Amino acid sequence: MELSVIIPTYNEKKNVGILIPRIEQLFYKRYRNDFEIIVVDDKSPDGTAESIIKLNNAYGNIRLITKKKKEGIGSALKEGYSNARGSLILSTDADLSFDVRDMLRLLTAIKKGRDLVVGSRHRAGGFYEKPNIKTKIKGFISKYGNMMTRILTNIDINDFSANFRIIRRNVWKKLKVADNANSILLEMILKAKYKGYKVAEVPVMFIDRKYGKSKLSLIKEMPKFLMRLVYYIIKYRILKLG
Predict the structure, then answer these.
(1) How far is the C-alpha of 88 from the C-alpha of 158, rounded, in Å?
(2) Among 39, 16, 15, 37, which residue's Cα sits nearest to residue 28?
(3) What is the end-to-end Cα distance of the chain in Å, rounded?
(4) Which of 27, 100, 169, 230 is least buried, going by the fewest C-beta atoms within 10 A?
(5) What percent of the chain has a predicted confidence (pLDDT) above 90?
(6) What's residue 218's pLDDT?
(7) What is the spatial distance between Cα 93 and Cα 113, in angstroms, rounded to a whole number?
């Protein structure tokens, strides 16, 4: 199997009902049924898991992993990546913020000999929708936080925090990523780059979610992200551990 698509979910019943048919349609001609979608659900109380079961009855290539308790996106991604069967693993958020057509950009880029390709909202050609003051603030923090991360890590990536990326399964297994929080997205890039793997990015579209509520609190996550950033730089770049 060539491709596994990983989708972490928590209370995304309406969104997955739209997202998964779009993914199925996008890849059907290319892979027929020789690809899989793995949904890792954080024990959603809104019926997300039940919706996934119904979708699998229609498509037959969806695997549902239900967590015993709510542990967040990092833990869900690790679970999904580690259970993937495809030689390429692509992950995306469930909230429809990323355009599924940009998945083809990720696939094209990794097939040029890269090991990890990240979708970037901040690279030239990318787009970050900011329809209101709240999203303008989030966009500002995201842009300049990622700019600071690029400078401190000396890695030429403009978006370390987007869950829209593709990695070779054999590379994922060798990375042995440890983080269970949102900062798994950062750790994956730093560890891959400092170990000598080929890391690249492509510009992608990012629109504000229309259904449901965001699970990310920047006020809570930013201090954690900064602490993990310093820790990873010391561990992987300076001490060359892991």
Answers:
(1) 22
(2) 37
(3) 29
(4) 230
(5) 81
(6) 64
(7) 25
Alpha-carbon gap, residue 44 to 52, rounded angstroms: 12
Question: Rounded distance, CA 141 to CA 101, Å?
Answer: 26
Three-state SS for 89-118 is EEEECCCCCECHHHHHHHHHHHCCCCCEEE
The full set of domain ranges for the chain reads: 3-238
Instruction: Classify residue 237 by its DSSP letter.
Output: I
Is residue 3 within a helix (H) or strand (E), and if so which, with residue range? strand 3-9
Q: What is the pLDDT of residues 116-145, one digit of tens each?
A: 999 999 999 999 999 899 889 889 989 999
> How much is the pTM?
0.94
Contact 188, 116 (CB under 8 A): yes
Amino acid residing at 35: F
Q: Which CATH architecture has domain 3-238?
A: Alpha-Beta Complex (3.90)
Sign of the alpha-carbon dihedral angle for 68, 69, 72, 75: negative
